[in-house]
Design goal:
Oligomer: single chain
CATH superfamily of the domain at 32-268: Spore Coat Polysaccharide Biosynthesis Protein SpsA, Chain A
Order of helices and strands: HEHEHEHEEHEHEHHEHHHHHH
CATH topology of the domain at 32-268: Spore Coat Polysaccharide Biosynthesis Protein SpsA, Chain A
CATH class of the domain at 32-268: Alpha Beta
Largest sheet: 8 strands, mixed
Radius of gyration: 22 Å
Structural class: alpha/beta
Helix content: 40-55%
Number of strands: 8
Strand order of the largest sheet: 3-2-1-4-7-6-8-5
Length: 432
């Protein structure tokens, strides 16, 4: 006889309510992202002339990036930006693979390049520490951040700076990042779909409703004065970008997402590397949740409170509810338990799955990636890729409960790549 109990029924209803609550919330963000894209496409995309553009110091924090650093620095130097208003600072954090030597050679070729380095050792100081040290060397009022593996489009920096010139209220502007190795295997195809969905649904939608977008780790500009006001980067943070974003949000700064500014970057090609990267991300967000729990719950800044609740809901309530739902479904299927609450639960699950497919495929159409093969990959992701996040979140929680860690380097494995795919800025915006 299958076991039944009111607590089981409560847990079942709890999981259904939470899962659907997150689905509806993401649906609202998707709608906001669509409205933002529509308004953005109709806007003025002409570039500011050289004399109106601000001077920019681009920083590349690097730790053992010999495989990719020269290509990245040359891509920055080749960008369509006034040479007398641009410099590149590479912070080589105790690199022992020849990164420093490569940058020093490039500095001899072009005086716009400078290298800040420390003697080689096994363990670096961490990306936020490197950024804070590099900031002291920056001569210009606008700071641009790029990762060591980036290949930005030539117009990307000019687009972000033009946006800031036209809206002086902006404190920071972030562009879009694309997966340069998206065709490598099924995992990179899934990562590509995930990153596009995140940027068009969450980033664009968030900006539409709150005039704020979360800084990524790369391809963004920020006013040096704002960085100095908030105290730079938190050197204990693993995900220094999201932590800095929360402090900027608390100060009431406006941060805009500009999808026409594009950089190409490398994404994990193996499951082991993906798990390591995502675990670092979740642990970084755990740090942010812990650090800002008290101010968020004081409800003085509604956007900060909503951001906190969304992060907590996504990483813990939603995934906990998913685990409960899976467990109850399997035990019911095996005849171990039964749920006596009547309802069209099969239709509820199918509706959730259909909404997931519709949302993702809708935003893929912005990038002309709404192909039949990507539809199949998206359908498969629900049962594989999305479920792997459950393992990552619980692994991260256990690591946080058993280890203490300050911010150190733990970056994605690099590899040789071909040149980034070429596309016009108009296509980057979603073929507006």
């Amino acid at each position: 006889m299958p076991f039944s109990h009111p607590i089981l029924e409560f847990l079942f209803l709890f999981s259904v309510i939470v899962i659907w609550g997150m689905i509806v919330f993401n649906l609202i963000l998707t709608w906001g992202g669509y409205l933002y894209r529509r308004k953005f496409v109709k806007g003025d995309h002409s570039m500011s002339p050289d004399e109106d553009l601000p001077a920019v110091s681009a920083m590349i924090p690097a730790r053992n990036e010999a495989m990719v650093i020269e290509k990245t620095v040359r891509a920055l130097l080749a960008m369509d930006y006034p040479k007398d208003k641009f410099e590149v600072i590479v912070i080589s954090d105790h690199s022992n693979d020849g990164t420093t030597e490569i940058v020093d050679r490039l500095a001899l070729e072009d005086p716009r390049v400078r290298c800040l380095s420390w003697p080689a050792r096994e363990r670096g100081s961490g990306k936020p520490k490197a950024l804070n040290e590099g900031l002291k060397m920056c001569r210009h009022p606008i700071i641009a951040i790029y990762d060591g593996d980036n290949n930005p489009r030539p117009e990307s920096l000019r687009i972000m700076c033009t946006t800031m010139v036209r809206n002086p209220n902006l404190t920071a502007v972030l562009g879009k990042f694309r997966c340069i190795n998206k065709g490598k295997n099924i995992l990179t195809r899934m990562v590509n779909i995930e990153t596009l969905s995140f940027q068009w649904m969450i980033q664009a939608g968030r900006y539409w409703f709150s005039k704020f977008a979360i800084l990524p780790g790369t391809n963004y500009i920020i006013k040096k004065s704002a960085l100095e006001t908030v105290g730079g980067w938190d050197e204990k943070a693993i995900t220094e970008d999201s932590e800095l974003s929360v402090r900027l949000q608390m100060m009431g700064y406006e941060v805009q997402f500009v999808p026409t500014s594009v950089t190409w970057e490398q994404e994990p090609e193996t499951l082991k590397v993906w798990i390591k990267q995502r675990t670092r991300w979740v642990r970084g967000n755990n740090y942010v949740l812990k650090k800002f729990a008290k101010p968020a719950m004081q409800f003085k800044n509604r956007h900060l409170t909503m951001e906190f609740l969304y992060m907590f809901g996504l990483y813990y309530l939603f995934l906990l509810s998913t685990v409960l739902s899976h467990g109850i479904f399997l035990l019911s299927l095996l005849g171990v338990i039964r749920i006596d609450i009547p309802g069209p639960y099969t239709a509820v699950w199918l509706s959730a799955y259909a909404l997931y497919l519709a949302e993702v495929f809708f935003v893929l159409s912005y990038e002309k990636e709404d192909t039949f093969s990507n539809l199949l990959v998206t359908a498969l992701m629900y049962f594989t890729y999305c479920q792997m996040w459950i393992y990552v979140v619980f692994k991260s929680l256990i690591m946080d409960l058993t280890r203490y860690r300050v911010g150190v380097w733990d970056k994605t494995v690099r590899f040789k790549t071909e040149d980034a795919p070429e596309a016009s800025a108009k296509q980057a915006a979603g073929n507006g």
